[in-house]
Amino acid sequence: MNNTEFAGHAKKMRKIVKIDEDKCNGCGLCVPSCAEGAIRIIDGKARLVGENLCDGLGNCLGECPQGAITIEERPADEFDHNAVERNLSGEKPVAKPAEKLPPLPCGCPGSMARQLKPVPVVVCEDAQPGAAVPHADLPSQLSNWPVQLALLPVSGPMWQDADVLIAADCVAFAYRDFHTKLLAGKSLAIACPKLDDIEPYVDKLTAIFAGNTIKSVTVAHMEVPCCSGIVLAVRTALEQAGRADIQMHDITIGIDGNVKKSS
């Protein structure tokens, strides 16, 4: 039999994507390769969001570095072109106004937005060119609080005429010169593309980019594949916000603490 009754409606025996969640590391490389938008990163894992969105051709197979995506034949909802069109149109919403965004998840006084005044790093005039400054003498270059993207407001002084640094959580621990070479002169937002739910971040960044006079965005992430999801989130938000004028820089930090790539 080609068709089987499941939950009151017919499912057709056909080829469809299968995702092994144990192998998936949430890197997100499969998402842009799926032209139908059938795969999204949810709770740190790639997931098939609708059987009727997957055509079973497997364009996403070659993008998975973990081999977590395969094609299997099983009873599934038929592929629906109309559903794909609705899904794709829903992935590019108009930027949400700040007042309609969900409230910040924490109401404690510690999450109150603050502007800080970092002390510029000064190197002695008689120091040899390229000489390192003792870290004990380096002041913090943090210019805003809080720093977690989930807690940041979508508008305010930190975003106005600003150069913004969006960093994966681990970058500051791995990269010794985080304050002097990455953070100085920038507003900071941090997030974990593996453990956090990225989709709300895309919505929030879309609103931030659309509603503020941001000059540039630097995305700093670790070299591990799962960390590249933060780059995808920023690029998607810039596109949804219609901000092709914002210059984006992509910096990859190795687990050895060195800069592996900068563009």
Descriptive report:
- The protein has 263 residues and is an alpha/beta fold.
- It folds into two domains: 9-90, Alpha-Beta Plaits; 138-262, Rossmann fold (3-Layer(aba) Sandwich).
- The protein contains five helices and twelve strands.
- The strands form four sheets. A five-stranded mixed beta sheet has the order 9-8-10-11-12. A three-stranded antiparallel beta sheet has the order 1-2-5, with no helix packed on it. Strands 3-4 form a two-stranded antiparallel sheet.
- Helix 4 crosses helix 5.
- The radius of gyration is 22 Å and the shape is elongated.
- The protein starts with a strand and ends with a strand.
Key structural traits:
263 residues, Alpha-Beta Plaits, 5-stranded mixed β-sheet
Q: Could you give the topology of this structure?
A:
Blueprint (H helix, E strand, L loop, with lengths): L2 E4 L2 E11 L19 E4 L2 E4 L20 E8 L4 H10 L23 E2 L28 E2 L17 E6 L2 H4 L3 H6 L3 E5 L6 H14 L4 E7 L6 H13 L5 E7 L5 E4 L1
Parallel strand pairs: 8-9, 8-10, 10-11
Antiparallel strand pairs: 1-2, 2-5, 3-4, 6-7, 11-12
